[in-house]
User: Fold this.
Amino acid sequence: MAYDTYPQDSQFDTNSPDEEFVKKLAKSYKIWSAHRIWLTPINQSINISLITKLKSMFQKIVRDIHGSFWFIKDNKKQKLDGWLSLTGALIDEVGCKTLSDVELNKFTNFQFFGK
Assistant:
């Protein structure tokens, strides 16, 4: 199977579907020249690098000229001055599932981190 530069019916029109350009070649067909091949991404967001995506996730966290960190959302600010406020800001940026007390109580308590 080959994708060619002209449609099977040799009629160039602006609404020719891609299928018209696909041709089945005989096994004995000899290719006499090289051609350019191009790819078009299906999803344009693929072009965004991982670093760019990560940086864009933290746009609500800013630093002032004195080195302090702040979380800004809905024209309000909170200074990030401890682990609790920093964790809250990170969870807000990255996303986190919220459980009700009933849902949370279905799990057994366990200490994963710390002493």
User: Anything to note?
Assistant: Residues 4 and 34 are 12 Å apart (CA to CA). The chain has a mean pLDDT of 81. Residues 48-96 form one domain.
